[in-house]
Design brief:
single chain, about 160 residues, alpha+beta, Pnp Oxidase, Chain A, seven-stranded antiparallel sheet, 4 helices, about 30% helix, globular
């Protein structure tokens, strides 16, 4: 289950990128992913308000043989990213595509808390120190979410 934690009172303001620049950034991310330079997944959620499928590229971190960790940092914004809100509101409608595989896998998201979150956070910031700076910009605790493949008994 994904717990929608409170937004912060301070943080960076992220503006939406113009469509052309957004496509260019996505293209660079795809190239990095295909070259094995960035551990990316495509996360698909269903909009909490719109009901439309939304797909975003995200960095991921290993969580054992069958799990992925993602971080809802939003660059240190006071608000949560839309994909995190969508995931919290519709946790049964979440899929990922790993690397350049074309197979979409339904996943079960789960917010990490307490000692488990702290241990995961330590592993994440050791690999990607930029997250420390994002946390310093906001007063909200940046959520760490575990994604595991959905199984028949998990439904």
């Amino acid at each position: 289950m994904v717990e929608l934690t409170p937004s912060g009172t301070r943080g960076t303001g992220l503006s939406k990128l113009p469509p052309l620049l957004r496509r260019a950034v996505l293209g660079l991310m795809l190239v990095a992913m295909r070259l094995g330079r960035a551990p990316l997944i495509f996360l698909t959620t269903v909009g909490a308000k719109s009901g439309r499928m939304r797909r975003v590229p995200l960095l991921w971190f290993s969580d054992g043989a069958d799990g992925w960790l993602v971080v809802a940092s939003y660059g240190g914004s006071a608000r949560h990213p839309a994909w995190y809100v969508n995931m919290a509101k519709r946790p049964d409608q979440v899929w990922i595509e790993v690397a350049n595989q074309k197979v979409r896998v339904r996943v079960r998201p789960e917010s990490l808390k307490g000692v488990e979150r702290e241990a995961a956070w330590s592993r994440i910031v050791a690999k990607t120190p930029a997250y420390v700076g994002y946390q310093a910009k906001t007063d909200r605790e940046i959520p760490v979410i575990r994604l595991r493949p959905e199984t028949d008994e998990g439904r």
